[in-house]
Structures are given as structure tokens and as C-alpha cells.
Amino acid sequence: MATPLPWQQSLAAGLRSFSRGGVLLTETYGDGEISPGGAGITLAPWANRVADGQWFLDGKKQQLDITEVSRNNASHGLLRNTGYAAVAESPHAVSLEATVFPQHGYPFLVRHRVEYQLGEDLGLHVRQTLTNDGAAAAPFVLGAHPYLRVGDTPVEDLQLTVAADTRLVTDERLIPRSSVPVEGDVDFRPGRHIADLAVDVALTDLHYEGGRARHTLAAADGSQVSLWQDESCQYVHIYVSTVYPGRTRAVAVEPMTGPANAFNSGDGLRWLAPGESFSMEWGIDYTPGMAGC
Prior knowledge:
mainly beta; 6-stranded antiparallel β-sheet; 2 helices
């Protein structure tokens, strides 16, 4: 395989591939390709969407660029098309950093650092940190957009488990308007086979054990991949794509500190004082099945 170009190694501080023992645990994409469906990218200073790209700061309307034209939303933050610089590196870890400069719609100076580290158990540990380098308090939501898989097992044959009690009800533009208890196709607590499932939904009221909520894709042989997120991330977005290149289904499990349109609803929205930093943590673990023992 050809060596990735420099921009591919740093764009959006994205997780391009993660595997254990030759078992691919995240969806990937080829050299020279732009990340399909936001695969692996990190999200700052907001995750998901801002309706019409508009929000208000001290009574003054702010207008962000519309990056999801079909729904007239500003989508996935301001660093999706930005190259991050490596600021630290070791045999088992790398740290990448990029700056959001003051601009129309977001007049703040903030810096996003993403640290990837392999733990002693060879699980992946990710820390995303936002720092306010400006002179005014800055609003933000952080998130990430990995797609999970279990090697070559067809995604349709996998079972997804997410311990969450509430889903956000959205309009046709995927902007949350209310919340209700999970039920039916979006109740993943007992586990649901992907099969013909197609959902694009944010969940909250997550169940945390030891400070972590865990979401799992499992195969029939017992092999499974889990994404965990810490208590700073009170939301997870589940997106089952039917258009991921080369895959009949692809499952995005997206940890987020706030939901779509948080700049308007205030749900999950945080503010950083000048000089202050905030971190969220998440990671990916793998358990081999009987054949992998």
C-alpha cells in the first residue's frame, strides 16, 4: 500500500485505521481519498449540526458557513478540513493540534489537541482537549466520528448494544426538538442486530460504570469491539450508514459532549473562560472470539 500523503495523516486529526492482531476495528478508506461520511474525524468547536448555521451571542446573530447544504446546516465544527500538526510523538502515542482562529460565526480563538495512545492492553485511548487562547469566554461542544467494525464479519451479522434510556426526537433536518424514552428500533439496551437497521439518532441518559459508558458491536463467535466514553460525554450519536463505500452497512458510534444545535438549545453546551482548558476522553477496546483465543 502506498504511503499516505501528509494531509491524509493529519486531516481533522482523524482516526484512519485501528486494528488488533490483524483484525480491523474501524472502517477505513484508501490512499488519496477524502474521509467518507466523516469516518474517524474529530469535531470541534461543535459536534453534529447548527441549524441554518445561526446562533446568537449577546443578542447578536452569528452566521456560520453552511457546510451541509442539503439540510442548510453548519455541520461538524470548523476543523474538518484542517490539517493538524504533530506536537508530540512516541512509539505508542501521538498528539496532534490545530487552532480555530476568530471568524464570522465564531469570533473566538481556541486550540484543539487530540492525543491517541495505545494502552498496556493494546486498547486505544483518546483525549481531546480544547483550550481558550482568546480574551473572551468561548462556547463549545466536542465530539468524534469513528465507524466500528469487527474484522471481516458482515456488519449485518453484528449486534449493537448501547445502554441509553433517552433518544432525541429530530425534525427532517436532524435538529433535535424534544426527547422521549427509547423504544423499538432505537432501544439498543438489550442489543439489536444491525441486519436491515438504518438509524441516525442521538441518545442520552447513558449508563456509566466506573466512570465510563460503553457501546458494543458483537459477533456471533463472541468477538466484539467496544467504544467507551467518559462522563464528560453525556451523548452518543448512532448512525447506520447504507452508503459507505464498499460496505452494505457501516456503523458510526459518535461520543459527544453535547447534541446537535447545542449553540441554540444550550443542551450540553459549555463555555471556556480565557486560558481555560477542557478534556473529553474515549477509546476503543477489542475482545477476540473463540477462534481468536
